[in-house]
Every structure is written in C-alpha cells, then in structure tokens.
Protein: L-ascorbate oxidase
Amino acid sequence: MVELLQRNGCILKLFLALFLFLSLVEVPAVEARIRHYKWEVKYEYKSPDCFKKLVITINGRSPGPTILAQQGDTIIVELTNSLWTENVAIHWHGIRQIGTPWSDGTEGVTQCPIVPGDKFKYQFVVDRPGTYLYHAHYGMQREAGLYGSIRVALPDGESEPFSYDYDRSIILNDWFHKSTYENAVGLSSLKFAWVGEPQSLLIQGRGRFDCSTLTTPSLDPEVCNATNPECSPYAMTVVPGKTYRLRVASLTSLSALSFQIEGHNMTVVEADGHYVEPFVVKNLFLYSGETYSVLIKADQDPSRNYWMTTNVVSRNATTPPGLAILNYYPNHPRRSPSAVPPAGPAWDNVRARLDQSLAIKSHQGFIHTPPPTADRVIVLLNTQNKVNGYVRWSVNNVSFTHPHTPYLIALKQNLTDAFDQTSPPDGYDFVNYDIYKTPNNTNATVSNGIYRLQFNTTVDLILQNANTMNPNNSETHPWHLHGHDFWVLGYGEGKFDIFNDPKKYNLVNPIMKNTVPVHRYGWTALRFRADNPGAWAFHCHIESHFFMGMGVVFESGIDKVGKLPSSIMGCGATRGVHRP
Structure:
C-alpha cells in the first residue's frame, strides 16, 4: 500500500511538472497544414454548352477541383502534363507567392513551361483569407477550360465582419467553339482574323448553345446534343430562410459580364480577398480575373426555383445569356423557374459600371492605409497598333513579347542577353495624344524589355484607355498584377490630368485588389509597394489582348530572391539544365 502511494505521488509530481512546463511555453493553438493535390492535365471531349469539343481538364474535370485551405496553409500541387503535344503552366491568381516567386506559374516570366509527359511541383503558402483562382498561363490555354477556384478560410477561432450559414463558389466564363490554336493563328497572322464573340456563357462550367443555329450541321448527332446532361443548367440548392455567401468569380477570355439572381438582392462584402464596406446591388459587374463575395438571403417564395443569369456588357455581343438555377429545397433542382429570366443591364451603360467601381471601398476596421505619396509614377496608355503589318495591342506604343528564357531566371543569373535591357517608357505624349481618335502610332515597336523598380518603393500606375483602330471604339480592359495587391485610388472619364486628378485620389479607405478594369475612354489610378522580390507580370486579363502584347513586367529586389529550383528551368539559355 505504501509503495502504491509513493508511485502515485511520483506520477502526480511528474504531471504537475509537465503542466508547469506547458504553461510557460507558448504552444500554438492551431498549426498550419499541408494541403497536397495530385493533378493530371489532359484533353478530353466535353460538351459544356452542348457542343462537343476538346477541353483541357484536371483529373477529368473542368472547372477543376476547388482548393480549400486555411490562412497559413502550404499548398502542394503535383502536376502531370498529359497533353502530349502541348506545354502547360498554371498561375495561382491572387496568391502573392511571398518567398516563392518561382511558383507563380507564369510561363516566360517565372518558369519554363511544363513539357508533355513531365511532372512539376508547385508549392506555396496561402498567406491571406479570401477568394482566389487558378488557371492556365501558357498561350491561350485558359479559354480551353483549364481553371478553378481557391477558397482560403480564416484560422479557427477568427471571424469575419459578416455572418452567413453556407459558403458556395461559382465561376463565370465565356466559351468559344474554335480551338485555342485556331484563335491564336488568326490573331498572329498578317491576314488578321479576330476571334469574334463567344458562342455561349458558362456558369460553373455549364451553358446552353442553340444547336439549331449551327451553320454547318454535323452528321454526328453527338456534335451538338441539347439533351446531353453535361450542359444541363448548373443548380445551386438553398434552404429557405438561410443566408449564403456566394463567391462569384470571372475567368472570361473576352467578355465583361453582369450577374444577377431573379428576385434577390446581393450584398457585396469581399473583393479579391479584401473586405468591402457592404453595399447592395441588383446586378454585379465582373471583369475577367475579378472575385467577389456576395451575401444572398433565401427569403423568396420557397415553392419555386429562380434564375441566375449572366450577360455580356461593354461589347455589343450576340452571345445569349448564361442561365443557372437557384434551387429552393425541396424543389427538384431541374425544375425550371416559372418566370422569364431577368434581363441584364444595357451593354453600353458605362455609367452604371463606373458607379460600381467607385462604390467599392475598404471595410471600416480593415483599412490598409496607402502611402501618402509615390516614389515613381508610370502612365500606361492602352492602344491598338499595327507593327510590321501585324495587329497588336500595345502599352505606350510598345507591344510586349515573351523572351525564350524566363525573366526570373535571366535576372537571377544575370543573363543580360536573354531580353532587351532597354526599359519601356514611363509615359506618353500627354499633351498632344487624342484618346478619342483612331491612332496613327506608326512608331510602335515590339519588345521584351521590363520596368525595374527600386525595392520597397511606392509606385503609382495610371491606366489610360483610348480609341482602338476602329473609329469611335474603346474597349474595357481588366488589368491583373501578379505578386502584389494594389490600392485603387480612383477612376475617371476622359484623359487623366497628371496635375489635377491626383488631388481627387481616395487615400482614406481605398479598396485593395489584384485585378481592376479601365473603362472605355477612361483612366484608373493604382498604387502599390514593390516589396515582393521577383519578376511579376502586369497585363490585360483578356486572353487575346495579352497574347497580342498588352502587358508589362516589373522587377524588384531580385537580389533578395532565394536559390531558384532547377525544376523551373530547361528552356532558352537554361536548355539542358536538369529538371528533376
């Protein structure tokens, strides 16, 4: 008995000592996790809008699998390229890649492409909560169906400045029946052939093309089959009385869109991973590369279903609206709503789109105050040009082209022959250039020169829109910055006044984003800190526009970038470098 008491006493002392040790040592409540994915990228025949064509899939799916993570988690994607005749690269849109610039996934900028049959490992940390995307970043592959969602939640125990019962994601897209190769050849030929308007609009990978409109009907009934279940409308089931956070994103190749839900208002609460001072809309304008979270309350008549629709704006398009179903449980998800689908706003109502842009402010309590002034101002004039007979898009009369050796590698290894060492201009002839006239621009050039930014400085970017080569035409351009977020300081109509318009900047509560539109014949002012070492693309997110040269590259802090993995090499000056 005495021996038992002594033994128990020793155990008690050991327990008390362990308790005292743990109370003195700081132990994290939740450890960041590693999220591991294995993806195979390959072509498969699919009929997302009832028309059968080759689609690039991930593990047989388009859109691909949704990446679900918490802030601070490490994402590992092991990618196998089974396209066999085509390279590939995937960009993690909105993920800043702090410390891992080689995982940004931008072919020609941060990595060599992944060749057919090869495996490649992307590894990065998702450092902020929010709604993000991934998509192909090689040629024009994104429009072939290689895209998906990234949803990053707050750590356990933390809350957001709004409440909801359920969380859902949808991606809006436009869809072309021609292959990316056909479109790319037309754009890059002396006998220029424009891609035209998309044949349909997809909501979460599903749309409906009218097979009766085919100009050359096929003998194969499966080429266009309206009864194919692959093109039945996407249905999102909701429980009456519940509130839903709907993460809506656009990855269109060409179109600006309006999204609306029959009978339901939407409260905008997040944009590109940043909380928004809430505001209510009946329709939400989205530009390619943008993500939003909206709250919707399932508070309508529960005996029926409702339409979710999307339609093209900013272009006088012939593309029919995209349709999906908001399914009120327990109605059948395939039960067609009894009402006519809601019509979207007029395609040419620029004022309504500008008003939404101006309404997006940072949520009180989550404001990241911008630096009061900039160290450098770069004005980027968006124009259409002819260079050596080829139709190109240009910035300050310079049309961008990718080098054979990715910038990140060339800069880190000081390969000065890998790209043009002359930087593009910081502006254009503000005084004499008429943004409302068809440009002459006979001095336009093609270059792969880059902007070199002093590390940790503040840079203002002024996007200036202008007339295209067609009279009385100016197109909306969504611009996306890799590796950074920027403050949106202002929008305006007409030509930017470099002396007076900065006085109107919003320096109090500007929203931070990674993708922003510049409206027709207008300007958009951005500010960012060049505080993420690497080489980063900044480009129009319309596939054909970037393919035709509408982009630039920024370099800063390259000496602070760690040792580059050999897996990103194997092309250009690094041809022959072993890729494990």
About this structure: The chain has five helices and 32 strands. The CA atoms of residues 259 and 363 lie 23 Å apart.
